[in-house]
Amino acid sequence: MVAYRHLGSSGLKVTEITYGNWLTHGSQIEADAATACVRTALDLGITSFDTADVYANTAAEEVLGAALKGERRESLEIFTKVYWPVGPKGPNDVGLSRKHVMEGINGSLRRLGTDYVDLYQAHRYDYATPLEETMQAFADVVRAGKALYIGVSEWTAEQIDAGQQLASQMGFRLVSNQPQYSALYRVIEERVVPTSTALGLGQIVWSPMAEGVLTGKYLPGQAPPPGSRATDDKGGKQMIEAWMRQEVLTAVQRLRPVAEQAGLTMAQLALAWVLQHDFVSAAIVGASRPEQLVENVKASGVVLDEDVMAAVDAALGDVVERDPARTRSPEQRPA
After folding, report:
1. What is the pLDDT of residues 52-90, one digit of tens each?
2. Where is the NADP-dependent oxidoreductase domain (predicted)?
3. Rounded to 5 degrees, what angle do the CA atoms 252, 177, 161 make?
4. Each residue of 250-275: pLDDT tens digit?
5. Within a 10 A sphere around the Cβ of 198, how many other Cβ atoms?
6. Domains of the chain with bracketed CATH
7. How far apart are CA 269 and CA 304, in angstroms?
8. Which one of 35, 133, 245, 265 is at 20 to 30 Å from 309 when CA atoms are compared?
9. Hey, is 210 helix, strand or coil?
């Protein structure tokens, strides 16, 4: 069964492998397959589920809500987010204004079929709205009982610090940040992690397998496997392009003997590597087939020794992205 960890310094416990439906529910796979994946996640002991209003333009929340219907609500941890354009994408259908936050939470609750979410997250930082307005809106969402905890996603260290100061003044605290993080993408380590740790935020990391590249299924000099994310024109192909360079794919293949020696698949090694870091509260995994989850959850509880961690570093070498400036939000709200 999947192990639990505290979400930052809060009292909330979440499964260290969390099921996310970013590029799957309502987009890449049909509702029946999505429901099968959610049911498998539950059977495997995953009780934490991450979504967002923008995923498939609200359809992902609806699919997740339907899949979880009938489950004991108190036994689940449901996360969602607000910021990106939704609905008809009018001028107020985006950002972190009070209007959009309040309408966003109400819409998410309706689609998810629940009275509250456990974690409500600012999906990016909004430069067009005063931070005080955003944090006051989140404070009111918490006081109304519509969200139990508040988090952020892809905020810089400075933005997290300023947000936490305001949150504390308003009677709540930020408990989490949701950044991209993997053995290939470590941009949060220099600035975001130390600030978050000092302020009590845990990291709920997305793309721990670098869009699937760290599974080793993409081979240098060969076409992507049919049906893989790199062949998906609905969004998956665009997201994975940055990792499809030949030097990256070659470096990833050097991880194969490391995984074999550790008795793991390459996907399990990627997840286990992320979970070795105590600043990580959870790693988000998606799935288009239940069997993917069955294999991935085997990374929970795995302890990698220092030699394995060093071997991962040596294999990937200088293809690892470490630039802290890569943590950023759009300077302007997306149209």
Report:
1. 999 989 999 999 999 999 999 999 999 999 999 999 999
2. 16-315
3. 125
4. 999 999 999 999 999 999 999 999 99
5. 12
6. 4-326 (3.20.20.100)
7. 9
8. 245
9. helix
